[in-house]
Amino acid sequence: MATFLYKLGRLAFRRRHFVALIWVALLTLAGVGAASAPPAGTTSFSIPGTEAQKAFDLLEERFPGAAADGATARVVFKAPAGEKMTDPDNRAAVEKTVSDLADGSEVASVADPYRGNAVSQDGTIAYASVKYDVSGMELEESTKDALEDAAQQARDAGLTVEVGGDALQAVPHTGATEIIGIAVAAVVLVITFGSLVAAGLPLLTALIGVGIGVSSITALAGALELGSTTSILAMMIGLAVGIDYALFIVSRYRAELAEGREREEAAGRAVGTAGSAVVFAGLTVVIALVGLAVVNIPMLTKMGIAAAGTVAIAVVIALTMVPALLGYAGRRVKPAGAKGRLTGRGRKSADQVTEQTEDARPKANLGTRWARFVVRRPLAVLLLGVVGLGAAAVPAASLELGLPDDGSQPTSTTQRRAYDLLSEGFGPGFNGPLMVVVDAKGSDAPQQVFTDVSDEIKGLKDVVAVTPPQPNKGGDTATITVIPDSKPSSVATEDLVHAIRDAGADIKADTGAETLVTGSTAMNIDVSQKLNDALLPYLVLVVGLAFLLLIVVFRSILVPLKAALGFLLSVMAALGAVVAVFQWGWLSGLMGVEETGPVMSMMPIFMVGVVFGLAMDYEVFLVTRMREAYVHGEKPSEAVVTGFKHGARVVTAAAVIMMAVFAGFIGSSESMVKMIGFGLAIAVFFDAFVVRMALVPAVLALLGKKAWWLPKWLDRALPNVDVEGEGLRTLGDEDEDEDRKLVRTT
Fold first, then answer.
1. CA end-to-end span of the chain, whole Å?
2. Tens of pLDDT along 512-522?
């Protein structure tokens, strides 16, 4: 592989005009497709194989035209202090609002609160339910404006009015902090390279890669039914890895220049060595993201595949466009150690250093000194790191999972205020009603079955109200709405869902009628359960495949095993930090978390996938340098120091950049994106600075030569991918001789 990538790097360097033209054309094509595509639809929580989804599908079949997936709105009214909603003036204002809403072209129905018993017992709060023919993301702006105008007219009449539901759902935005993250990345690159040109290359290539990836996702959003958060998450991951991959190749290019190689040869060797690490690091990320498909939740699968596609683009761009841009940059990219004008003359080049006396040699860099310290005290460093990560992981033992609803929205939103008003007037469970679907098609007395199911549910614990059964036109299926006593995200509500399903199993045994529970609350419960059940198989699959891949890369058993165990430590510590901030409320004000509550259900499995892929990035980049030194004859402890000498500075810069990019998404208006941004940023911190920079050298120092042990039979069976670039030791000289012969003959 190293030889192939070496030739690819030299080809891209020579044919830079052609390579640049291809990528610009692809960016333009993707941009045009995105500009002409319709907006992304709403994120779907379809969960094949669950009871909630089965009931939802049954509703669409037995209640045709009911627009089961249509947007809903609850317009909540509160009377002024000392007044009632039944007072003539207040009632007139509400009825005027209901009449105005009913005139909308996309409105399916509007329920009058005075006819539908939707006034609180104390008479101070009422609500009108609005049902639309299309989903929230498909509503026309004029329809949303009409809803807001109707609410404002009621406010002008003296009422307090808030609107809940998904009718006013907006496409999430990330905020200005995303730009701050990119700015931090730029500063780190300038400090690392000491040159604006060298620093600009990783940023430029990463932005082009993300531009192509996100534009392609936007263009295909309608056809593939991609959710509105898919492009944001693809941008988050693609931007982080794109900068890192280009950073490693540019850094290796400068190191090759410092050894006296010609620029084309240096570009080829950089792509052949660091590029090999980029390929395998990218493969681990892609495996982790595509592996999300095993969960069998379409939304999560699409998010993973879209992000994996963006990562794949970042890898290809790093291997082709980075050497092409290095060709354009020419002498403006300095060899390692030779600083540009921006940071002064700095250290001298490698050739100049060899001319100095031993006493005048520059002091060892920080990475070298740190590695020597760890090698001298490996057991102490190992114990301290493990204990520290274990302490950070303690809050994860209190992890509570759920999915966000209007109750998790900021208090500044009308959806959250409507949620609070409904809780005040009708109880917390009113915000999460359960819909029970009774399929009595095979029963001889459907109406009696409906009544029996309703009576059975009324006798259950934590039930406040049960509406009369509403049969369909065929009379074989009915819906029953159940109002719990607890809020939607509570354990009591989850227990009630299971109790209804248990009662339905008994009824089916007696009558043959099937009772199913659905609705957003039941759907969220089923999502959480399915994610919990899939976590262990997913972990085994992803870690297992990556373990096999790393055996091929490092030709070792213990190094990949150590990498996997270190990842588990870092991801548990990161989950602990997420629980502390988003569930317990520690530093919640600093993170912009206005409402604490259960951690998003998909957070653990998503973090496992993404963090594992990113953790292997640093493992591959750092340990391949150690492996390279060991293969070339150094002792194990010396190889560890050599790996840090050449890789620690760049790995540190890459980690800081990735943390800055992920932290930039904490400013998102979407709670899911905010939580993932924080979780990934803190996970990168733990994994890069504790696991890879401390635990890895400590373990390798303790293992010595055993770290690189591989059974002989397995060594013969494995393909030689040559990540260390052993095949390039003489290849470059041979190519240079051929080039000189070609010049003489022409």
1. 32
2. 888 999 888 88
